[in-house]
Amino acid sequence: MMKKYLTYITLLGAPLFWGQNKTIEKTAYQESWLQEKQGNEALAFDADLQLSDAEIALDKKIFQIRKQFISETEAKKVSLYNSSFTEIKPMIEKSKLFEIFQTMPKGGLLHTHSGGITDVKWVISAARKYQECYVYDQKDNDQFITGQLVFFEKGKVPNGFVSLDKKLSSDPGFEKQLQELLTLKRDNLCSYTDYWIEFEKRFKRISMLLPYRPFFKEYYLKGFQELIEDKVQHVEIRFIFDELYDFKNGKYPLTTSITDLQDVVKEIQKSDPQFSLKLIYSSFKFLDTENIDKQLEMAFELKKSFPDMITGFDLVADEAAGHSISFFEKNWIKLKELNKKYGMEMPLFLHAGESNSIFNENVLDIALLDNKRIGHGLNLIYFPKTMEQIRKQNKLVEVSPLSNQILGYVSDLRNHPARVLLSNGVQCSINSDDPSVYGYTGLSYDFWVAMVYWELDLRALKKLVFNSVNYSSLNDNEKKKAITYLNQQWNDFVQKTNQKLN
Ligand SMILES: [Zn+2]
C-alpha cells in the first residue's frame, strides 16, 4: 500500500497526496510559491487588518453575491467592462450588492467640491420656488451660457433670461433638458467629449445660484442629508469662497459662508449628532503667484477665526491647463512663513496627478511638501520612487473612480491605477468628487464599482472606510469620537447583513 502511494506521488506530484493527508509537508517549490504569495499580500494597504469571524462570514457571502452578479451579466452578454457608468447605472441600482453598499457605513467623504454635492433634480425643484430665479434660454455668449441659473431683482433682469418656474411650467421638455445641461455623462466609452470644457460649464451654470444666501443654506442642508442617508458621517469640502448675497443686505463678508454652514451642521446634528464638516480652502491652479499669495493670506485669516472649520489649502482645476505645483514654489516658501506668523499649520491637500501623462509631474511636489492627502494621484504609479516615498510618508490618495471614468482618465475600470497603489501599500480612500455633476448622490456607487471591478474583499473595503476617518482632518478628540461611532456602525452593519444574507 505504501509503495503504491509513493508511486502516485512520484508520478502525479504532491497535490493528490495532500488531498489524502494534509499533514504531509509541501514540496520546496510549493513552499516557495506560498512565500511568494504571502510576500505580495504583506505589501498590500490592508495587510495590517484582521477580520473577525463575523466579518469573514460576511466576506464570503458578499463575494458569492459578486460572483453571481458577474456570471449573470455574462449570461446576459452584458459588456460590463466596456460600458460607461451611465450605461450600467440602472443595473447597479437593481443589484443586491448595491443594496448592501447603501447600508454600509462609509465613514468620511474626504474629496468633494462646493457646487458638486447636491442632486441636480433637487436643485431645479428648489430654485424654481424662488420667484427671483431666472434661467438663460438663449445660445451661449461671452457673458452667459444656455441653462445658466441666476437670481435677479424684479426689473433688473437682463435680456435672454426668463423666470425658471414659468419656463418649466410652459415647456414640458425643459426640465429634462436643464438636467442634462447641469450634469456631465459619458454615454458610452467611445464618443468624443471635450471633458473639462463641458465639466466647467456645469459649474458655471450654477455659479451664481449658490452664493444667494437663502439658497446656499438650503443647498448644503439637502446635500448633507443625502450623504447621511448614504451612511456618510463626515464631509470635507474643497471650498471655493465666494461672498454670499441677498437683495435686502447686498453682499456679506466671506465668514458668513462659514457661520451659515455651521448653522446648517447644527441643524443636521439635531437628528444626526455624529455628523461633522471641515472645509479645505481652495483656489485655482491657473492663477499667478501673487494671487495665490493673497489666497494663502485669506485662508490663514479665515482659519484664525475658525480654526476648527478651515483645515487646509488646495489648488484645483484642469491640471493640463493650469500651472504646475512647482510653479508655485515661492508660495510654498511663503506658506511656511505664514505658519510661523499665525502660529498655526495650514497643511496642503493638493489635487495632483489627475492625468495619464508622465509630463504632468505634480506628484513629485507632494513628496516634498507638507501635503497630507493627494487628490486623484492617477499617474503616481509612473513615478515609482515618489510612490514609495508617499507610502513611507503615510500620505493618503483620495481616489474617485467614477469621476475618473466620466472625465475620461480611465475607461475600463479594471485598469484603474488605484489597484496598483493598493497592492503596493499606498493608503487610499473612496470618494465621489462631484456626484451631482455626474448625476448621482452618495458614495455607494463609487464603492460598488471599486468592489466589483477591483475584486475587493471585505477587509479592503473596511480599510478604505476606516481610512476615510483616520486620514480626515478632524482633530484628535473628534477623530476618537468618530472612530468609536464608525466602529459601532460597522459592527452593526456586519451583524445585520450577516442575518439578512443567511
Ligand atoms: Zn476634485
From TrEMBL:
It is found in: Secreted. PROSITE patterns: A_DEAMINASE. InterPro entries: A/AMP_deam_AS, A_deaminase_dom, ADGF, Ado/ade_deaminase, Metal_Hydrolase. It holds the Pfam family A_deaminase. Residues 196-483 form the Adenosine deaminase domain. SUPFAM superfamilies: Metallo-dependent hydrolases (SSF51556). Its cofactor is Zn(2+). It catalyses: adenosine + H2O + H(+) = inosine + NH4(+). It comes from the Bacteria. Keywords: Hydrolase, Kinase, Metal-binding, Secreted, Signal, Transferase, Zinc. Signal peptide: none annotated. The keyword Transferase applies. Belongs to the metallo-dependent hydrolases superfamily. Adenosine and AMP deaminases family. ADGF subfamily. This is Adenosine kinase. It comes from Chryseobacterium viscerum.
